[in-house]
Amino acid sequence: MTASTQVAAARSASPEPSDRVVLAVRDLHVHDQVNDRDIVHGVSFELTPGRVVGIVGESGSGKTLTCRATLGILPERLVVSGGSIEIDGRDIAGLSAADWTRLRGSTISAVFQDPASYLNPSMRVGAQIAEVIKVKKGLSKRAARRRAIDLLAAVHIRNPALVYEQYTYELSGGMLQRVLIAAAIAADPTVLIADEATTALDVIVQAEILDLLADLRERTGLALLVVSHDLAVIAQICDEVLVMRHGEVVERGSTSEVLHHPQHEYTRLLISEHDQYGLERYLETTEPAHVL
Ligand SMILES: Nc1ncnc2c1ncn2[C@@H]1O[C@H](COP(=O)(O)OP(=O)(O)OP(=O)(O)O)[C@@H](O)[C@H]1O
């Protein structure tokens, strides 16, 4: 049984109602204590199992800080100054460092741009995934290795046992991003945040990684928060989209509704900027744009 089928089997053995809210961000405000100003103003969204919410916006619009607040990893000078974040029904405001250690990876996990910087260059990549499994799942060294190889197969790596033994410098950017996704899902989180996770990849590899995320959501019920400055990425995978500008959500709605009938001038600008990259092929479809 592969890792993904194991995950799917474990979940189907205890089916969860799909309207169970696994992440609720309500009226989130992030404040810069040094400059005494709010830089994220009232962001709200909810994730249920298998749902994909996207955040799109230009550089500096507050996308990453929204993710970092959700993961409890804001830079020191920044604080959550308003609103609430609940993960699996639990308000994160009162979490201790030990609670966060338990939660990160096993309930909420993340992948970012530049996977190489999140992997140790002097350790075989498979061993790094196995390490997560040993720590988070308490498996033996041998069982963790087996599961890590299964996970590499689950993220569509063709020769997982060989790749397990390789180092980061031997792998392409797309392969490294797959390895990082395997590590991120190793402890069966319910929520995965993908912050510009495909930005550094060429268009074909980017599409493959988005397919992989869609496949994981389909098979395991993983809920996804996908952050990108690129509307084409959002169009390919998200059920719902929030358009951010200067720390505020200027427009939100189902992806196909926002792409077909943008209400805000800034959304229209984003769409027109992306036409040249092929967004029109999603806009031309009569079906919802996000269906893969
Ligand atoms: N460590 C920090 N200290 C102070 N201000 C910060 C810090 N990180 C971000 N900011 C401020 O918050 C704003 C939002 O940053 P954020 O990284 O969330 O933007 P973003 O939409 O993710 O952009 P990008 O796509 O470039 O990552 C920035 O314009 C910056 O002014």
From TrEMBL:
Gene3D superfamilies: P-loop containing nucleotide triphosphate hydrolases (3.40.50.300). It is a peripheral membrane protein. Residues 25-271 form the ABC transporter domain. Keywords: ATP-binding, Cell membrane, Membrane, Nucleotide-binding, Transport. The keyword ATP-binding applies. It is found in: Cell membrane. Its main location: membrane. SUPFAM superfamilies: P-loop containing nucleoside triphosphate hydrolases. Belongs to the ABC transporter superfamily. This is ABC transporter domain-containing protein.
